[in-house]
Amino acid sequence: MKTELFNSFIGNHNLSEPKYIGSPFTWCNNQRGGARIWARLDRIIVNSKWYDVVNSYTIKHLPKCHSDHCPILLQCRTNTTRGKKPFRFENTWAQSQVCHNIVEETWNQPCSGNPMHTLNHKFCTLKNHLIKNCGKMNQGMGQQIKYLEDQIIEIEVQQSKQQGNFDLDIQLRSLYNKHQALIRQNTTFWAQRSR
Predict the structure, then answer these.
(1) Rounded to whole angstroms, how far apart are CA atoms 188 and 114?
(2) Angle at Cα 159 formed by Cα 157 and Cα 163, nearest 5°?
(3) What Gene3D superfamilies does the record tag this protein with (predicted)?
(4) What b/e readout covers 157-184, taking b as 16+ CB neighbours within 10 angstroms?
(5) Phi then psi for 60, rounded to 5 degrees?
(6) Nearest to 189 by CA among 140, 126, 131, 124
(7) Strand partners, 56
(8) Distance (Å, rounded) from C-alpha 22 to C-alpha 64?
(9) Contact indicator for 130, 99 with CB cutoff of 8 Å
């Protein structure tokens, strides 16, 4: 009865489901072997006005690492231009020996003249060297996370077809742990960026 009401609501309001990327399933009961059940419970539904407003979108079913439901990521893109980004020292740089060496070399360079001009010159030089040599240190993290998520989704799909395959369970648990560690590291990075 509830399903029929829901489906009639979708039809009466001209709602539709956009295309997505990822596993066809969004829920799993997390049981082992033949007791495991996969289903598609979660979805995004939009109306025709949404398609008019959103230029480009991606909907991705992410791996269900910490729940029995897969998170759904909706990314909408618009054409906006941004101004110049302010310089921010990344906390992750403090743990890099390369960045330590850059700071030490820049700070130890001899300068003469006005002390305020010297200080300003060192800060500007340091900023440029850090951006050039350390600025891309965190870029690979997003790719690593995406690679792990793709592996997790692939194994989850295999697991949904091969009930009781304990080797897949072990592989999946290992990937979940690696994913969780990278997510923590990425969260720290973006927490600093959000301030």
Answers:
(1) 39
(2) 135
(3) Endonuclease/exonuclease/phosphatase
(4) eebbeeeebeebeebbeebbeebeebbe
(5) -130, 130
(6) 140
(7) 77
(8) 11
(9) yes
Residue 21's DSSP bridge partners are 60
**pLDDT tens digits in sequence order for the chain, 195 residues long:** 788 888 888 888 888 888 888 888 899 998 888 888 988 889 899 988 887 788 788 999 888 888 889 899 999 876 555 667 788 888 777 777 888 899 999 889 887 878 888 888 888 889 889 888 887 777 788 888 989 999 999 988 888 888 778 888 889 889 999 898 888 778 877 778 776
Minimal CA–CA distance to 92: which of 138, 139, 136? 138
Distance (Å) of CA 48 to CA 17, 20, 21, 106, 192: 10, 17, 21, 57, 38
Q: Which two tokens stand for residue 18?
A: 């956009």
**Can you read off the two tokens belonging to residue 116?**
């305020």
Please say whether the beta carbons of 36 and 163 come within 8 A: yes
Q: How far is CA 17 from the centre of its chain?
A: 23
Residue position matching structure tokens 């009930």: 163
Of 151, 152, 156, nearest to 40 by C-alpha is: 156
Locate 52 and state its tokens: 């008019």
Please list the residues that pair with 84 across neighbouring strands.
none
Taking the CA of residue 172 as centre, how many other CA atoms within 13 Å lie in the half-sphere pointing to its CB? 20
